[in-house]
Fold this protein.
Amino acid sequence: MDIKFTAEEQAFREEVRAFLKAKLPKDLSEKIRTHRQLTKDDIIRWQKILYEQGWGAPGWPKQFGGTGWSPIQKAIFAEECALAHAPGQLPFGLSMVAPVIMAFGNDVQKERFLPRILSADDWWCQGYSEPGAGSDLASLKTRAERDGDHYIVNGQKTWTTLGQHADWMFCLVRTDPNVKKQEGISFLLIDMKTPGITVRPIQLLDGSREVNEVFLENVRVPVENLVGEENKGWTYAKFLLGHERSGIAGVGTNKAELRRLKEIASTEMKNGRPLIEDPAFRARVARLEIELEALEMTDLRVLAAVQQGTSPGPEASMLKIKGTEIRQELYNLIRQASGPQALAYQPEAIEDPEADYIGPEYALTAAPVYFNNRKITIYGGSNEIQKNIISKMILGL
Amino acid sequence: MDFSLTDEQRMLQDTVERLVADQYGFEERRGYMKHPQGFDPAIWGQMAELGLLGVPFSEEVGGFGGGAVETMLVMEAFGKGLVLEPYVASVLTAGALIADAGSDAQKSEILEALVGGELRLAFAHTEADNRYSETLVSTGAEKQGGGYALTGEKVAVLHGDSADKLVITARTAGEADDAQGLSVFLVDADAKGVTVTGYPTNDGLRAANVKLDGVQVGADALIGEEGQTAELIRLTLDRGAFAVCAEAVGAMSKACDITLEYIKQRKQFGVPIGTFQSIQHRMVEMRIALEQARSATMKAAARLQDGTADERRKAVSAAKVQVGEGGQFVAEWGVQLHGGIGMTEEYNLPHYAKRLVMIDHQFGDVDHHLNRFSAMMDMPESA
């Protein structure tokens, strides 16, 4: 048993660090560090920088223009990016639809879509959840009916993250209403410029506008945009869920936020002393750091197993549960550390990095970030669903 | 990054797991507890025969030359069987301290007999007023003639009543909490002035209070350098804490298995209670607590093996916190998910629960280690 990284892995880490130091734009890292809103251009700019470096798709095999990195390398890259406050790469194209196209799409689809995902020329969004289909995703009702060379799609998707910027949506639709609910679903790629699509933003409790409702009314989708076989969409959706999960513990981001929490608690004063010297508060920070260190080891144990060819499987559900619980507690402590100055609500300043605001920089976003991150135990399969998965797949209940 | 075991480690693990599986059934264990020492000397003899009593010691004294990973494997297996023998007291704390700092004469006299199963030790450090402190020692050792006279009282000395010799911490100089002036002595348990009062513990083990009333020892009773053993004591306590962490991981894993099996069998409302989501989710949380405790313990093993003293102390404290809370979580929910049968002396699960809870009372509890970790916590440069 050796928990040290190898010399090659260490050298790789240095290479990533050097790249980030040279190529990560300061305005972007500052926005991430201070939890400001990124624009569409910000996200595309960073993806193109990675693309030019040849690191546009850390999770893809080399044949499609990916890095071909090992699971450990991917984890190192993700951690260094998080610690350097690099923007996250948009997952919808890179790590959600792309693996499905690679595994089940035809050659035309691979050539048409994959390069444009890699270069950030296409922006993808996810058409999964519906008003009546959340955790019970397979009960989705959006219909796709065949009409010659087209499907006619009618229905509504919701919680579509950053769909307001999207060029394409990968969408689960019902193509056969007369069979078991899982067996009548297909996986369609829909051009967001197609007539009949309306995107309506939903404002979240923190004031942000990152999710949307997407209404589909007689939307004509060419049959060539069906991935794989008709009515096999549920298989592909489940495959995607298994794929979405490397890096799911978010260890790097949690480390970066822990550092920020300590900085804030060292700046905020309590009874004339830095808050971090208050034993009660300090103990809560220490407890969280201990939990995070344990999660890092759990993550590495799963990674090492993946590296040796075991599939991440349901163990990833544990990482999702713990990783999100820790993250939420980090934001909880950051909010509390910010004290009474966390009361001020100043959305204009969060959106516009040039705008003036009242109070310290960290207090500006402390409460909104806390509220916004209630989402992380809900999305990607709620933590309750993750527990159901572990219960069934690991415990055999 | 490699979490796999070497062939030798795997063999060691097989050996211990087989011993536990073959000899430590629930009913057998109840029988062993009836022995006056609180364990079966015959099993101790078997452990000697299998080479287990020499795991952390050098080959010169008949040992196996194992490190923290080997300790972890042994203790995890022991935890699964709730093993009663004084392995932590004799081998992993008092024995390891002598291996570290003892004179050649002490090593050959004590360790060979220990490895052979002929001699048992206990580590006497805790005092009624020092709680879990490493350096707050009131027991005094006064220079007298060519040797020392020891006076004071040690409490909760794990397996102190079955030890032939006691490894005792005492102050030869300095005051109250000074790190300087701490010494360690090897004292016969039946020496004049030593009063050992043994008692059972709430988890079925044994402990003792040890009263020292002007106990005369020679200069050769000193282990290590006079007044300079604070780091040795810290290391020994960390080894003890780490050992019970690994034991707890074994006990948590067994408690989870027992509970899982039970909720699959137990029927209410016409169905196994494991079909109820509220019970499934609790079971999942128990398993997550186990994996987190295991991870923290593995990290502590790595740091004990090749970390600096500070890295070791931080990682051991982190593990003891993670295990302390996680172990209690598994203990309490294990009992709860069992319902009434989980409350009974005649069933196995409650005994795991008791051990898991009482482990927090050994080598520093959650609060102690959280404070220790907190004091050592890294702060960002800009802060």
Notes: Chain B has three domains: 7-119, 122-227, 231-376.
